[in-house]
């Protein structure tokens, strides 16, 4: 109870500053791998707080550490992403985005502000924990191949090497004051699909003189649904969707080529590899059957996100201690994806959801032009992460 009270006191102490930080970042959003001003702003805060850091990791990423007693005893990492989305904000707030066509519509401004608040709290409680906490401010979660992958390749999980990593994500489907968890497999892998159907186009009224690339493309779209509906193992959630079709012909013109773009998502890495082969086979066989060719490009995206069962169970219990059992909820799997998954493939990880809405029933969804948070959720975000960190290190 003493630790909880200390953290709550520091949450209130730093809350106004954290709100200001969140609003500054929200007003000045930057796209993936272009977060130069955001990075400078974060480092300026760290300088003012006398926190040593390393910047320029994966272009705009930042890493810093806080050492408690016996720094080498146990090491954990906390991560926040800092990039925004190519969305034009339609909110009418004092902190509305100043950059046309760019918006923190996925709440990364809140992630970053919350982690900075957590850092402030933990820096004042260094004598309350043993070990070291690494803070990762990561670019480019929203763009393949993902900033997490590049930061890992540049050594973010080394020197010192954390044994566990924790991340949180805003969740408008929960009211502020609540958090949600899912042990085990939580979020899907995500791959981008690109097809180019090539044939001999021409007059639509002379079908015997042409290759009907549009018809071939439509058959490929329909047949690809066999992958999630018939070919995938019944216990593995799988989605394949084509979201973009470009057939630049006319009412009486069949084009020489048609382009398709889509997404493939699943919850199993082995099946994912097999599915890639099936996708290529299906598209190729249909094209050949009709006298056309098809170029298939499957761009590998983020892997399956796995929440370590043992660590996540501990984190759930710590969260219940801090917030109360009624404010910690169970979540279902999500077919959305997150590049935090790269960390979870290497070390034990927990990725959880932070309730951010005033009323979850009519809250604007993530990635919408009207998304916003109830800023009281920042108290929950930084307080919960600080409490979890200390409890985990002292276990």
User: Percent range for helical residues?
Assistant: 25-40%
Biggest beta sheet summary: 8 strands, mixed
Strand content: 25-35%
Broad CATH class of the largest domain: Alpha Beta
- Uncertain residue segments: none
The domain count comes to: 2
Q: What is the first-to-last residue Cα distance?
A: 16 Å
Q: What string gives the helices and strands in order?
A: HHEEEHEHEEEEEHHEEEHEEHEHEH
So what's the overall shape? Answer: elongated
Describe this structure in words.
With 395 residues, the protein is of the alpha/beta class. The chain has two domains: 2-186 and 304-393, Aminopeptidase (3-Layer(aba) Sandwich); 189-299, Alpha-Beta Plaits, CATH 3.30.70.360. Helix content is 35%, strand content 25%. The chain is built from ten helices and 16 strands. It has helices at residues 2-27, 36-48, 108-124, 147-153, 213-223, 226-231, 269-289, 309-323, 341-344, 377-393, and strands spanning 53-57, 61-67, 75-81, 132-138, 164-175, 179-181, 184-187, 189-198, 202-203, 238-246, 253-254, 257-266, 293-299, 305-307, 328-330, 349-357. The protein has an eight-stranded mixed β-sheet, sandwiched between helices. The protein has a four-stranded antiparallel β-sheet with strand order 10-12-8-13. Strand 1 and strand 2 (61-67) form a beta hairpin. The chain is elongated and about 80 Å long. The mean pLDDT is 97.
Key attributes of the depicted protein:
395 residues; Alpha-Beta Plaits; 2 domains
Q: Any chance you could write out the topology, listing elements then pairs?
A:
Blueprint (H helix, E strand, L loop, with lengths): L1 H26 L8 H13 L4 E5 L3 E7 L7 E7 L26 H17 L7 E7 L8 H7 L10 E12 L3 E3 L2 E4 L1 E10 L3 E2 L9 H11 L2 H6 L6 E9 L6 E2 L2 E10 L2 H21 L3 E7 L5 E3 L1 H15 L4 E3 L10 H4 L4 E9 L19 H17 L2
Parallel strand pairs: 3-4, 3-5, 5-16, 6-15
Antiparallel strand pairs: 1-2, 2-4, 6-16, 7-14, 8-12, 8-13, 9-11, 10-12
